Amino acid sequence: MKIPEESIINRIYVIRGQKVMIDRDLAELYGVETKRLKESVRRNKNRFPVDFMFVMNKSELGSWRTQIATSREIKKGLRYYPFCFTEQGVTMLSCILNSDRAIEVNIRVIRVFNQMRSMLLTQKDLMIKLEQVEKEIIMQGSKMKKNEESIQIIFDALKKLLNPPNISRPRIGFRRTNERD
User: Structural domain of residue 23, as residue ranges?
Assistant: First the structure.
C-alpha cells in the first residue's frame, strides 16, 4: 500500500508551535479505529511524554477547526479532544501498534517529516542569503546617493558641451562697406 505524500502532508498541523498529526488521521492511515489507537496509547502512557504526544484543549480545537475549514464530516467523531502526536510520537506509535501496515505508514510519515525539515532549512538559508543581498544593495544605494549628485553634475556638463545653446551674437570681423547687420 503506497500512501501519497500529499495525503500525509495534508494531515500535518501546527499546534502549540509544533508539527503534529491527529489521532484519527493516524488511525485511518494505520487502518485501525481511533478508539483502538487511543486505547493502545493509554495502555502505554509512559512511552508518550509531553514532547511526543499531548491532548488538544478546547481553544486549540477551535483554532484547528478553522485551520482546516471545518465541515460536518470533519466534526464527525470529535466527541473527545484529539491526541496530537509529534514526529517522535508517531515513531513511538509504530512500536505499540506493531503491524506491518503501521511500520510502513510510519516510515512514510517520518520521511515526510524529514523532507519538511530539510525544506525549512533550505528556506532559512535562502532567507539569510536574501537578507545579505538586501543589506549590500542598501549599502550600495547609500553610496550611490552620495555619488549621484557628482555624477549628475558631470552628465549636465556633458550635455551642455554636446548641445551648446544657440545664442545670437554680433558678428566679429571685417565687413564690407555695403554689408549691414
Answer: 5-126
Does 39 reside within a domain? yes
User: Rounded to an integer, what distance in angstroms lies between the CA atom of residue 107 and that of residue 127?
Assistant: 30
Angstrom CA distances, 88 to 62, 78, 97, stand at 25, 24, 15
Whether 25 is covered by a domain: the verdict is yes
- The domain that contains 15 carries what CATH number? 3.10.260
Cell matching residue 83: 491526541
Query: Per-residue pLDDT tens for 112-132?
Result: 888 887 777 777 777 777 677
- Tell me: the pLDDT tens digits for 78-121? 677 899 999 888 888 878 887 778 778 878 888 888 888 777 77
Residue 157 lies in a domain: no
Query: In terms of pTM, does the model score above 0.85?
Result: no
Tally of structural domains, the chain:
1
The one-letter code for the residue type at 171 is: R
Buried b (16+ CB within 10 A) or exposed e, 61-97: eeebeeeeeeeeeeeeebeeebbbbbbebbbbbbeeb
